[in-house]
Amino acid sequence: MNLNINHPYDWEIEFYQKNDLPYWETYDQEEKDLGRIYQSDNGSYVEAKVTCMPAQFWKFNIFCSERNETTELSTGSGGLTDFYNIAVMIADGMLVVKNIS
Questions:
Q1: How far is CA 48 from CA 10, 61, 75, 77, in A?
Q2: Nearby residues of 10 by Cβ (< 8 Å), 6 or more positions away
Q3: The dihedral of CA 84, 90, 92, 95: what is its sign?
Q4: CA-to-CA distance for 60 and 74, rounded, in angstroms?
Q5: Which end of the chain is more exposed for a tag (fewer CB within 10 A), N or C?
Q6: Averaged over 67-74, what is the pLDDT?
Q7: How far is residue 98's CA from residue 93's CA, in Å, rounded to a whole number?
Q8: How much is the pLDDT for 99?
Q9: C-alpha pair distances (Å), 27 with each of 23, 36, 61, 65, 85
Q10: Is 69 exposed, middle or buried (0-12, 13-18, 19+ CB in 10 A)?
Q11: pLDDT single digits (tens) 19-32
């Protein structure tokens, strides 16, 4: 059993504090639900989950009230600050992702 404890990267602590996000800890390969990490005045929101391998992989559930659409976004490795602005832009209707296949 791997007992490595993961947490936000050191360079992101100030971002977490500034945005009133919870400090979290999780074991390798355990998904940690951070809940709602962004909420706009019009009802749009971003929820996040992180899984560490120990690199951080993110899943976002994004609701855009303007478009009445929910988008699921999964990432490769990186910190929350690498993807936060993209998720917020989707929630705020500033970025639209369409799957064409």
A1: 19, 6, 11, 14
A2: none
A3: positive
A4: 6
A5: C
A6: 96
A7: 13
A8: 81
A9: 14, 21, 22, 34, 26
A10: middle
A11: 999 999 999 999 99
